[in-house]
């Protein structure tokens, strides 16, 4: 399902990246392979045998090419499997994405959540492939699965080396027909899914949308949550789950997408060898025929739960994603809620009626909805904000859509599509969404429809659909003469996609992101103004280039008490200059096909740029204007302040935020006022309320400027021209304050155990750890890297296997060991999200696993597996230009080069079990753990 809305402050964000909707199973004897529907009696479907199954008389027929669209080739196998191939030689990874046309829409009575539960079960594996996530982790893959209304997909991105592609294809072919759906696996997994359900229950906005959607749809299954009801998830029998699997997980109901670095002919042959031997099923899938009737009056729902933030959501029935009017709904989403030009933003956020506004409009096969919501400033403004929101949404007859608004949407959307189509890994996943909506080529038809969209189109849709009788909000008002929306059309997809106009994109160069290649292609230099530069020019698909600029300032004394004003200064700089408004800045970035983000704190300011070669000089000039000539407007300060205060208020009831805040303060107890100190929510809110625009302007004038910093660029650019422009723009930019690096330290943490109560929350969290006086040049670092991976740094780790796979307590559990880069300031940490009633068991399990690891040690086999997985993951990380530009900037700051990483990898490769066991006994101290738990202590039996 889509990413769970979960705030993850502190180190929790990195830990949660391990979570996947699928799961890794407990190691146990493999059950017998399931029978494959409709295959000849006695046949064994074996995608790995390299030959035709025993019962088959002939080899599978050759794939038939159907069409080519914008470099993407479509084939169909003899058994009905659709295959898309998208070679991209600029990548050093390959992505395999298989999507089944089955989701929550296809579930029957008592089956809610079955599609999602089945997705989890497929990560349990097959008799041949047990512990799927662990197997993927060992190959350095980034992988996940997801379930949504119309589809379920599984994808993995691996280094494009060795037999990774063939192996991944074999894995997915095996999972298509041979999944081990056993009673034992289901017994542990249903509680993991229940924990995921509980995690979602903590998100007020998500639950409000779920309730409103279920009220808006009377008959169509879009009204049911993909994760399902608790009772169905907990009670579904294995036989029913297997029948669902055998019905829908078949080649004629799937689309396979391979993108990245591979040879087309070899890949096609491997696909046919793995998947082509699977028989076409004899069954015929029935069509979905339920149609939601036109809504005949306002509907409402009220959600009452503990919390501090007031939310309002208005939902309007819309059209299917293949419908020509789908793009107009996207435009309405944009022109209503986009910051800062959106109508609702100007009507609600700028005058202070709401903290922010948002909208939801998804890709679906059948007619779906547009939802528009607000987060109120406080309870006193809810009614006024709600009325103003509805007046704006349903007021297009009085205030028609303008050409300027539509052109702004088109520029932003076309920029987004340009970025998407230049990234083959992202495109591989996005194409499956459009395939689930009816046809993968709809993506390109959508782009054409964006280009052709007019204000008249959007106005017609707005006045036709955004009306009271088509709204679900929270109240019912009888209407004598209902004014209803038109019936949504059934799109003729086959006819529509024939009109696609193909675009062209620069292919870029074949580039392998090995350490040797990176070292050979990267040039370093020192620029006027104190910037240390690292440039890696290369031809990229679509001419993409990414730049990171960091300017450093201040010292411990001068920055004292300035944590919040530093952050507000960076936020305001993005909201207008002396000559351009916030809206004009956003318009200019869209025009230049550029994304620009500015992240500032006390001591450093970092600018991230993503654009294309032709626009880079203009983008650098625009960034220079933003940094050196910001408007720093009082009105914008008030908007940002309200948003920050609303965020803080929401965090007060979030177990994750509460625990992470307390854990950070306990682990690093810097004195109050020190910029390195983590404040309490009350302290941060009080500081934010006191800041004036004069404080912001003084901070900018005193601390911002060149003198110390780094710049890194990766992609399609002229290094000499960029260096010269940076020296012109920043060489004379002076700041008043000097710069001395803020040191980090380990405080020698002492054992503690705290329980924090967050009433009426369905999910809880436990965090544990202690600090380490460790720097990353210590000889024990390689051994501790492997110890970290084995402890909790992978989906095959000790912590993951114990809490998720063996006991089914947690949707996500993690552990890590870190070292300081310039100072001896590291950490060991553990964590898990749990149901409140499982807090005690989860905490005990985490401590037991760390203690057992230190006392009994690791095995040679574990170390060998972890070394390979970690080395493969490093290769995979460096294949991403966004990661690479950050790595280059970090190297310049630390005074390192790729030789340092080459040496580290060589030392990691030589680590033995004895090295790991000795290092763990030296550095890890379970008796020193600081433990923080947060959740509903009443449900946990603590009150």
Brief summary of the model shown:
The chain is an alpha+beta fold and 943 residues long. It is 41% helix and 17% strand. The chain is built from 33 helices and 23 strands.
Features:
about 950 residues; alpha+beta; Cytochrome Bc1 Complex, Chain A, domain 1; 4 domains; six-stranded mixed β-sheet; 33 helices; globular; disordered N terminus
Question: How is this structure best described in words?
Answer:
The protein has 943 residues and is an alpha+beta fold. It folds into four domains: 12-275, Metalloenzyme, LuxS/M16 peptidase-like (Cytochrome Bc1 Complex, Chain A, domain 1), CATH 3.30.830.10; 299-497, 2-Layer Sandwich (Cytochrome Bc1 Complex, Chain A, domain 1), CATH 3.30.830.10; 515-730, Cytochrome Bc1 Complex, Chain A, domain 1 (2-Layer Sandwich), CATH 3.30.830.10; 752-935, 2-Layer Sandwich (Cytochrome Bc1 Complex, Chain A, domain 1). It has a seven-stranded mixed β-sheet with strand order 1-2-3-7-4-6-5, sandwiched between helices. A six-stranded mixed β-sheet has the order 13-14-18-15-17-16, with helices on both faces. α11 runs antiparallel to α12 (382-393). The longest helix has 19 residues, at 403-421. The radius of gyration is 28 Å and the shape is globular. Residues 1-57 and 474-480 have low confidence and may be disordered.
């Amino acid at each position: 399902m889509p990413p769970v809305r979960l705030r993850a402050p502190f180190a929790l964000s990195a830990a949660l990246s391990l979570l996947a909707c699928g799961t890794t199973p407990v190691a146990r004897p493999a059950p017998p392979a399931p029978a494959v529907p409709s295959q000849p009696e006695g046949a064994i479907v074996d995608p790995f045998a390299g030959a035709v199954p025993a019962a088959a008389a002939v080899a599978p027929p050759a794939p038939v090419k159907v069409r080519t669209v914008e470099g993407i080739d479509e084939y169909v196998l003899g058994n009905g499997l659709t295959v898309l191939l998208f070679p991209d030689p600029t990548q050093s990874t390959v992505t395999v994405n298989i999507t089944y046309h089955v989701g929550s829409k296809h579930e029957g009575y008592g089956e809610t959540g079955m599609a999602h539960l089945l997705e989890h079960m497929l990560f349990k594996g097959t008799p041949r492939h047990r512990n799927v996530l662990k197997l993927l982790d060992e190959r350095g893959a980034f992988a996940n699965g997801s379930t949504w209304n119309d589809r379920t997909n599984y994808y993995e991105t691996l280094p494009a080396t060795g037999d990774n592609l063939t192996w991944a294809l074999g894995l997915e072919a095996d999972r298509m027909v041979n999944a081990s759906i056993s009673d034992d696996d289901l017994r542990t997994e249903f509680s993991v899914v229940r924990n995921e359900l509980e995690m979602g229950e903590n998100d007020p906005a998500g639950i409000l949308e779920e309730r409103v959607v279920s009220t808006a749809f009377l008959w169509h299954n879009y009204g049911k949550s993909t994760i399902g009801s608790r009772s169905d998830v907990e009670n579904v029998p294995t036989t029913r789950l297997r029948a669902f699997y055998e019905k829908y997980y078949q080649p004629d109901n799937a689309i396979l997408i391979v993108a990245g670095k591979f040879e087309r002919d070899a890949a096609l042959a491997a696909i046919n060898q793995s998947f082509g031997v699977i028989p076409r099923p004899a069954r015929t899938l029935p069509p979905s025929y339920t149609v939601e009737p036109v809504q005949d009056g306002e509907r409402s729902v009220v959600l009452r739960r503990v919390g501090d933030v007031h939310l309002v959501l208005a939902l309007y029935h819309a059209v299917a994603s293949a419908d020509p009017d789908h793009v107009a709904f996207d435009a309405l989403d944009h022109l209503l809620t986009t910051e800062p030009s959106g109508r609702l933003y100007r009507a609600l956020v700028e005058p202070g009626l709401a903290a922010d506004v948002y909208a939801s409009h998804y890709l679906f096969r059948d007619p779906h909805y547009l939802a528009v919501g607000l987060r109120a400033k406080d309870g006193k403004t809810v009614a006024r904000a709600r009325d103003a929101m509805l007046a704006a949404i349903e007021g297009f007859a009085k205030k028609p859509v303008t050409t300027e608004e539509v052109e702004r949407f088109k520029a932003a959307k076309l920029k987004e599509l340009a970025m998407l189509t230049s990234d083959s890994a992202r495109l591989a996943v996005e194409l499956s969404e459009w395939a689930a909506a009816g046809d993968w080529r709809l993506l390109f038809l959508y782009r054409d429809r964006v280009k052709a969209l007019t204000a008249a189109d959007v106005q017609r849709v707005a006045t036709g659909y955004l009306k009271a009788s088509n709204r679900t909000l929270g109240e019912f008002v009888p209407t004598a003469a209902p004014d209803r929306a038109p019936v949504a059309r059934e799109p003729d997809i086959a006819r529509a996609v024939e009109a696609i106009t193909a675009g062209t994109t620069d292919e870029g160069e074949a580039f392998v992101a090995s350490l040797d290649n990176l070292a050979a292609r990267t040039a370093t230099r020192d620029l006027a103004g104190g910037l240390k530069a690292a440039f890696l020019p290369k031809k990229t698909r679509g001419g993409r280039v990414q730049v990171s600029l960091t300017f450093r300032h201040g010292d411990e004394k001068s920055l004292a008490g300035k944590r919040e004003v530093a952050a507000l200064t960076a936020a305001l700089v993005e909201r207008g200059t002396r000559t351009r408004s916030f809206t004009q800045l956003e318009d200019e970035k869209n025009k230049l096909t550029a994304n620009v983000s500015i992240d500032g704190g006390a001591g450093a300011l970092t600018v991230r740029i993503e654009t294309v070669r032709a626009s880079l000089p203009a983008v650098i000039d625009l960034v220079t204007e933003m940094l050196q000539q910001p408007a720093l407007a009082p009105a914008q300060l008030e908007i940002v302040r309200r948003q920050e205060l609303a965020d803080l208020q929401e965090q007060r009831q979030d177990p994750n935020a509460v625990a992470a805040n307390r854990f950070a303060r306990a682990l690093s107890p810097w004195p109050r006022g020190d910029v390195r100190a983590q404040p309490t929510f009350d302290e941060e809110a009080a500081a934010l309320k006191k800041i004036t625009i004069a404080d912001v302007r003084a901070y900018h004038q005193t601390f911002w400027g060149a003198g110390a910093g780094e710049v890194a660029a990766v992609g399609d650019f002229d290094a000499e021209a960029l260096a010269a422009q940076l020296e012109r723009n920043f060489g004379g930019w002076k700041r008043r304050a000097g710069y001395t690096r803020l040191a980090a330290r380990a405080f020698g943490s002492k054992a503690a155990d705290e329980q924090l109560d967050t009433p009426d929350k369905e999910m809880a969290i436990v965090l544990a750890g202690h600090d380490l006086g460790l720097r990353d040049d210590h000889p024990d670092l390689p051994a501790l890297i492997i110890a970290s991976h084995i402890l909790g740094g992978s989906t095959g780790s000790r912590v993951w296997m114990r809490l998720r796979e063996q006991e089914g307590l947690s949707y996500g559990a993690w552990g890590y060991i870190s070292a300081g880069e310039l100072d001896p300031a590291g950490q060991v940490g553990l964590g898990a999200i749990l149901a409140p009633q499982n807090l005690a068991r989860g905490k005990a399990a985490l401590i037991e696993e760390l203690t057992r690891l230190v006392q009994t040690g690791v095995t040679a086999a574990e170390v060998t597996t972890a070394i390979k997985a970690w080395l493969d993951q490093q290769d995979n990380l460096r294949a991403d230009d966004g990661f690479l530009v950050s790595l280059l900037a970090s190297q310049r700051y630390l005074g390192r080069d790729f030789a340092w990483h080459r040496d580290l990898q060589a030392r990691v490769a030589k680590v033995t079990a004895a090295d790991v066991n000795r290092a763990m006994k030296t550095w890890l101290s379970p008796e020193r753990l600081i433990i923080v738990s947060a959740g509903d202590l009443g449900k946990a039996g603590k009150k």
